[in-house]
Structure formats: C-alpha cells, structure tokens
C-alpha cells in the first residue's frame, strides 16, 4: 500500500447554467482546457477502464459511488493508449490504495496524464441536478478564480453535437491486434483451445476499447484495426470474414466519412446477395450501432443525460431475454412502430429494432432483415461491467464461419 499525495487546493466545478459545486483538487493542475460535457456514471467498479475509454473524449465524468481510488491503477486495466476524458469528479478519493496488481495511485495517474480531478463533491446532489437539467458543460478550476469568469468559460465549451470526435481518438494507422483477454505465465496451460481456422476481422476504429479486440482474439480471430476514415475499398482489400464497427465518442451524425464507408459496404453486400454470393457479416457496438443506423437511412438524437454505467437492463424483443449491460452513450437511434406491429429504424423498413432499454425504452440494438448486419448500443465486452452480453461475440463469429464456408 502507498499513500496518495493529495492537493490541498480548493477547487470548483462550474457549470454553464451558473451552478457551482465545490471540492478539493487532485490529479493535474486544471487548465482552461479542463472543460467538457458533464455526465454521471453509476458503475461501482472499473474507474480505470472508464478513464481510458475513448468514448468519454470531451466529457467530465462524475462517479456516483462514494469512494474511488481504493484499488489504485495498473497497466492491465487500460482500454486505450491514454486517458481521453477532460476531468474526473468524485465524492471521496481514497487516501490509500491496495491491490495485488496496483502500480500507482489514481491521483498520480491523472497528474501524469494532465487531467484534473475534483474530490469532496456532493456527487449525489450533482447527479440529481444532471438528471433534472440534463448533461451540461462545465469546467474544473481552483476556487481562487473568479466564478463569473468560470461560468463564462463553461458556456464557451463546444457542444458535442456536430463534432466528429471519432476522428480525434482513432488510430493514426492500421495495426494488427494479438492480445487475448487473459495473460498467463508461460508455465500455466491455457484452459481452452482456440479454433484452428481464424476468422479475419477488420475493426473500424472510431475509439475502440481494447477489450473488444481481446474478445475477438479469444474467439480465435485475426484482428486488423483500421482508422475511422478508411475507405470501403481498403477494407475489402483485407478480404475480411467480418467487419466490426467500434464504439467511440460524440455525435454520430458528424462522422460523415465513417457513415459513407458503411453505406458503401452495405451496398456491396446487397450487390453480393443479388448475385447469389454471401454478404460480409457486420457487427456494430455503441457508436457503431448509431453509425449503422444512419447508414441504413435512419436518424439519431441526443439523450437528455445519456446512459453511463454498468447496470442498465436491456430486453431482447424477439426472445424476451434481459441482460444487465455496461453502457456509455449520449446519443441514440430513432425508431418507429409500423402498422404491422414491427419496431423498425425510422426510415428503413428492413432495419428491425432488436433491443430496448427497460429504463427509458431507448433503442439498444438493431438488425437487417435480409443481410447479416446487427448492432447493439451497449458494450458486450464489458470492462468494466457484467458479462451478460458476451454471447453476442459468439453470434458474430457464427455469422463469419457461415460466410467463410460459403465464400470458399
């Protein structure tokens, strides 16, 4: 165990609405860039995965559990190459950390990443305010600064709407991913055998979490990750058995290059089917779900305060199955019910709604009627969160196996 070195400087979270929440600063010294959309996350564990999830780019995250930092940080629980969020707000940061894998404290981790934190905040009151008001922009700053100027600064924080944040977090070049979910010492045998035939998967990186890639490797896939602006021709040149559309931050409608690529891939699939050939399976996760919906002619809209946490109940409409899921999104696909009793993606009668959120009935999944395309709004890879939805990777793999067998 080691003590966390805490700042004694009083700080504030100033919201664009004029509301002020006081606390004590930790992590990095705030700058005028320590602003973003303020959202709350209800996960009891997994703060390091949350910190490194690229989907939080441009946001300040408020954690609802009372104590954060108890287990420190470690190299294994990261979900990307760095911390992408703009700030971190907690009720109480733990003065000690203790875990057999821990290599450092949360406060030092944030400081090294240049990210400001604020502790001692009444996060229950802040969360209730955000639920009523909706997600608002804010800044973290020392209490010594003029509050009126901070509110003005919060109002100047750019909206997430209309911004292609995926382009800011995607990889700069394509790469192959080989790491599985569990790294064991060389003298410990692996308990399961992977398939002899590897399915080739191209992952469009809109801000991909690394555990998505690990889950694909677990199934025996050959994983190639490509930047978000990669063209359909470049993707097809890899001769993939499947295409995965990853999670990511911001407004899906602003990711115009990604939508265009997916539209072209769908047209390619429709042409293949018309020629009697097998279409390539596609699987979308979170932002990937929204982009697939848009590419199919649908619309997206911004939720009041979004879904952020690891305890969201989701119902599969066809089976009645309920999964508890990990979620992180501020936008959703728009749907409509037809006279036939079907729930479809608004704008495309061939795109069926498959899952809904039991808290607010937001659309949480879709699939194409005739093509092997499906997606979900939540995170089947969890990390952190329950593993209820991990079976969706098996569904994707089965589609790829079927495609691979027919194309050969």
Secondary structure blueprint with pairings:
Blueprint: E1 2-3, E2 10-15, E3 20-27, E4 35-41, H1 47-51, E5 59-63, E6 67-68, E7 87-89, E8 92-93, E9 96-97, H2 106-113, E10 116-119, H3 123-133, E11 136-142, H4 147-155, H5 166-169, E12 175-177, E13 200-205, H6 210-218, E14 222-227, H7 232-237, E15 242-245, H8 256-274, E16 282-285, H9 287-295, E17 300-316, E18 322-333, E19 335-337, E20 343-345, E21 348-357, E22 363-368, E23 373-376, H10 391-407
Parallel strand pairs: 4-5, 5-7, 6-8, 7-10, 13-14, 13-15, 15-16, 16-23
Antiparallel strand pairs: 1-9, 2-3, 2-11, 3-10, 4-11, 12-14, 17-18, 17-21, 19-20, 20-21, 21-22, 22-23
Helix pairs in contact: 8-9
Structural account:
It is built from ten helices and 23 strands. It is of the alpha/beta class and 408 residues long. Strands 12, 13, 14, 15, 16, 17, 18, 19, 20, 21, 22 and 23 form a twelve-stranded mixed β-sheet that branches. A seven-stranded mixed beta barrel has the order 2-3-10-7-5-4-11.
């Amino acid at each position: 165990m080691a003590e966390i070195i805490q700042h004694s400087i009083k700080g504030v979270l100033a919201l664009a609405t004029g509301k002020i929440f006081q606390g004590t600063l930790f992590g990095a010294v705030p700058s005028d860039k320590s602003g973003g959309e303020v959202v709350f996350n209800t996960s009891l564990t997994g703060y390091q995965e949350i910190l490194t999830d690229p989907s939080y780019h441009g946001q300040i995250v408020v954690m609802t559990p009372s104590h954060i930092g108890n287990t420190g940080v470690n190299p294994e629980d990261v979900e990307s190459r760095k911390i992408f969020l703009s700030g971190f707000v907690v009720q109480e940061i733990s003065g000690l950390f203790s875990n057999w894998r821990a290599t450092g404290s949360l406060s030092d981790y944030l400081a090294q990443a240049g990210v400001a934190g604020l502790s001692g905040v009444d996060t229950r009151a802040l969360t209730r305010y955000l639920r009523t008001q909706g997600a608002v922009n804010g800044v973290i700053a020392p209490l010594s600064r003029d509050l009126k100027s901070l509110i003005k600064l919060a109002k100047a924080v750019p909206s997430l709407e209309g911004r292609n944040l995926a382009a800011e977090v995607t990889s700069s070049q394509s790469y192959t991913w080989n790491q599985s979910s569990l790294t064991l010492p060389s003298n410990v045998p692996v308990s399961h055998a992977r398939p002899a035939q590897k399915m080739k998967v191209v992952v469009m990186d809109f801000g991909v979490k690394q555990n998505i890639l690990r889950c694909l490797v677990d199934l025996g896939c050959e994983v190639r990750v490509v930047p978000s602006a990669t063209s359909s021709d470049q993707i097809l040149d890899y001769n993939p058995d499947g295409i995965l559309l990853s999670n990511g931050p911001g407004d899906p409608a602003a990711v115009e290059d990604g939508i265009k690529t997916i539209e072209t891939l769908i047209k390619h699939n429709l042409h293949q089917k018309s020629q009697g050939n097998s279409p390539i399976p596609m699987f979308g996760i979170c932002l990937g779900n929204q982009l697939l919906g848009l590419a199919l002619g649908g619309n997206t809209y911004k939720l009041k305060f979004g879904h952020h946490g690891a305890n969201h109940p989701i119902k599969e409409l066809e089976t009645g199955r309920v999964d508890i899921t990990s979620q992180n999104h501020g936008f959703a696909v728009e749907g409509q019910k037809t006279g036939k009793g079907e729930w479809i993606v608004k704008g495309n009668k061939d795109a069926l709604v498959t899952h809904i959120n039991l808290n607010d009935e937001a659309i949480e999944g879709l699939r194409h009627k005739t093509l092997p395309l499906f997606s979900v709004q939540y995170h089947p890879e969890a990390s952190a969160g329950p593993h209820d939805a991990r079976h969706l990777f098996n569904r994707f793999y089965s589609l790829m196996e079927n495609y691979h067998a027919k194309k050969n």
